[in-house]
Design a protein that fits this description.
Blueprint: H1 2-11, H2 13-31, H3 37-41, H4 47-61, H5 67-89, H6 97-114, H7 122-131, E1 141-149, H8 158-169, E2 191-196, H9 197-204, H10 206-212, E3 220-225, E4 230-239, H11 246-274
Antiparallel strand pairs: 1-2, 1-4, 3-4
């Protein structure tokens, strides 16, 4: 009777599965080196870690934690450490795009911290400014008055009106308020003070802005065309653009120099790491991206 039951159990697939699983478990235990207490079994919450947990709590809650709260913070840290170690032991970090990307970001962050930059010298900033003048070039600025002529109100007479009004404005006995001779447009001011060329372009258009900075000063000229119509303008003062002196833009140059230097150090850091590996790319035969 017992022999028949045993033979029946031996034929059961579930029994085969359990026996195979037990065998694999024994082999894995035999092949896997026993964990060392120092490396795998000890979790030390250092004094510095406790201080760090306390600092984070204070930043969040604007007060120190109670002893119960601190014990809870420590236990939360221990729980995280236990879970992370077990997850790594099970290989849960492998082939996980999010985890891999996060690890890459952390290493890049560490490399940036390790490459803390010393303040640049004036010579370094001068050299950077000279090498990248377009990044810091100041645009021309204009102080000007404009008289607007509305095409919708002056159908058929727009060009003639512009010529006649320009003659009137340049006469010795020109009116005290020249803008009263033109048409009113609420979107535009009659006079602009020290306006950078990009801002002129944003209000009147790029074509108008490019023409404005080429006009002589002290007399009425035009007409200059914009998206609104025609304008007669009198440029009172024109400050040409150009590369400023370092003293004028030092904070901006220093910021851009620091960014460029960090990128340079990050590239060098990656190249040093990459050089440690023999990299082989096995492209599929006949593959066409």
């Amino acid at each position: 009777m017992a022999g028949a039951v045993l033979r029946s159990l031996v034929r059961e697939p579930l029994v085969h599965f359990l026996l195979l699983g037990a065998a694999l478990f024994l082999v894995d235990g035999w092949l896997r080196p026993a964990p060392t207490a120092a490396a795998d079994s000890r979790i030390v919450v250092s004094e510095e870690r406790v201080r760090n947990l306390t600092r984070n709590f204070v930043r969040t809650w604007q007060r120190p934690p109670t002893r119960v709260e601190l014990d809870g913070l420590v236990e939360a840290h221990v729980r995280e450490e236990v879970m992370v170690r077990e997850a790594l032991a099970l290989g849960l970090d492998r082939d996980d795009t999010i985890v891999r990307r996060r690890l890459q970001q952390k290493l890049e962050f560490v490399s940036e911290g390790a490459a803390a930059l010393a303040p640049p010298t004036d010579e370094q900033l001068e050299a950077y400014l000279k090498a990248h003048p377009e990044d810091f070039r100041s645009p021309p600025r204009a102080t000007f008055t404009q008289v607007y002529l509305d095409p919708a109100r002056r159908k058929g007479t727009l060009d003639a009106d512009a010529v006649q009004l320009l003659e009137t404005l340049n006469r010795a006995a020109a009116p005290r308020d020249p803008t009263a001779l033109g048409d009113r447009l609420l979107l535009l001011e009659p006079r602009y003070e020290n306006l950078p060329q990009p801002e002129v372009a944003s209000q009147f258009g790029a074509e108008f802005a490019a023409a404005l900075v080429k006009q002589p000063t002290g007399r009425w000229v035009g007409p200059l065309a914009s998206g609104y119509g025609l304008h007669l303008v009198r440029v009172e003062r024109l400050q040409p653009g150009g590369t400023p002196a370092l003293a004028e833009v030092r904070p901006l140059v220093e910021r851009e120099w620091s960014n460029a230097r960090r990128e340079e150090l990050a590239r060098a850091f990656y190249e040093r790491l990459r050089a440690k590996y023999a990299i082989t790319v096995q492209m599929p035969e006949g593959f066409r991206p």
